[in-house]
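Tutorial handout. Part one gives the primary structure; part two gives the three-dimensional structure as tokens.
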Amino acid sequence: MRRIALALTLAGTLAAPLAAAARGVYSYVDRDGVIRVFDESSEEYARISHRPGTPRRARGRIVSTPQVHRIEIDDRIPPQQAVVRWSKSGKDYDPHVQAAASKYELPAALIKAVMAAESAFNPRAVSRRGALGLMQLMPATAQELSVADVFDPAQNIDGGARYLRRLWTQYDGDLYQTLSAYNAGPDAVRRAGGKVPRIAETQDYVRRVLALYQAYIGSS
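Part two.
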């Protein structure tokens, strides 16, 4: 299996692109600030490719937006046909994201992508499994990370980034494993033999975070 190799600067920004792999997923930010994520089987791709029969208004709106970014998804994740739209900007939390990125030497765009996928930037988010806050920390994890108030954005983002960095180090920078473990836990990754676990939620999560990550890189 291919591994994504990322080089980091001391400021925690991306210094090398994602390694090439098998299948393309695309993303861009439209004029309304909506992040659109899609693959080559979607209607969005048909419009972006200017195929015959494409409504002129939709095509014009797309080409007037910032550059469309392509990432590579390898064969550890099945194809995805749904278009994902993300309308929240999360800009209010950018100072906390930048601070955590610098502290833990992670790309700010990656922290923000995880936060978007986890909570849609809702600092009071509570999942059905009991995960809390912007980075959806489980209570035991938050306690281990010394996060006293999980609903405080600064503390939650710092704790989530610290945990993300721990996983990043554990998996030697492999984003597939890192994100899978963040979503499903390290035990699930171990049982899957280092692959993305065959859990629909986790596969969708990894795919979504990678595409959002690339969109945030492109919109910065």
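Part three, for discussion. Residues 23-86 form one domain. The CA atoms of residues 124 and 211 lie 24 Å apart.
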